[in-house]
Amino acid sequence: MRAAEATITGRVQGVGYRFAAVRRARELGLRGWVRNARDGTVRALIIGDDSAVAQMLDWCSSGPPAALVANVHAVERHPSDYADVTDFDLLP
Hints:
hydrolase, 2 helices, Acylphosphatase_CS, 39% strand, Acylphosphatase-like_dom_sf
């Protein structure tokens, strides 16, 4: 089990990034959330099997077709800190 908090920079707001991220995360069976940040980035908490988290982080590097991702910075977190997170949600 792995948890990572990612900050995605570039043209990632207003291009359907969060909606596509929710779809992909649910396809991979992940838990967590994705949201827009005030600084123009997208933030995501990704929780699941090691390989699924790695696949999601790889996906974050490109995102949906309209996105232009400059960077993905991921910080490892403790999965046990997020035991109450049961789905992958879109946050405001």
